[in-house]
Description:
Blueprint: H1 2-33, H2 56-59, H3 63-66, H4 73-76, H5 91-122, H6 125-171
Helix pairs in contact: 1-5, 1-6, 5-6
Amino acid sequence: MLRSWLPGLGGGLLKALILGFIGGVLSFCVGQALPRRWFHPDAFPFRPFAWEKGGKIYERLGVRRWKDLLPDMSRIVPGVVKKKASLNRTPEAMALLVRETCVAEAVHWALIVCVTPLLAWAVPGLLGAVIALCYVLGNLLFVIIQRYNRPRLAAIQKRLEMRRKHDSGRSQ
Length: 172
């Protein structure tokens, strides 16, 4: 019985990997092409919800321990905005990084909405359902990272803006 299931498993996994890869590449390209002015961290759906407690809810999920273990396109693809806050020491650079978290979140939600049904359709049955569920959960991890980081990065941006105002007031 196991032998009769293995060809379906291999073929199903291969289909899922190909669809996931194609969806990921397409969504990355679309995400890079989207105008950043469309993304406002203080507007729905990107603004923090009260229940998120400024990202603290995600700390209960252990996000600090695992967030750096997941792949980051800024480490792989040249020219992509680097996601390390320590590299961005101006309010403008930090504002761009905050907007990038909005773009990344939108891309992962789009992957969930667009690719998950394709996976479930391409790989029928229980295997397709399991693959689709894993795909959703995997993308939700990236959404959590964006929602965890955004309030923290926005706070750093505000501090940098305040420091700039303070410093420019002293130099006059």
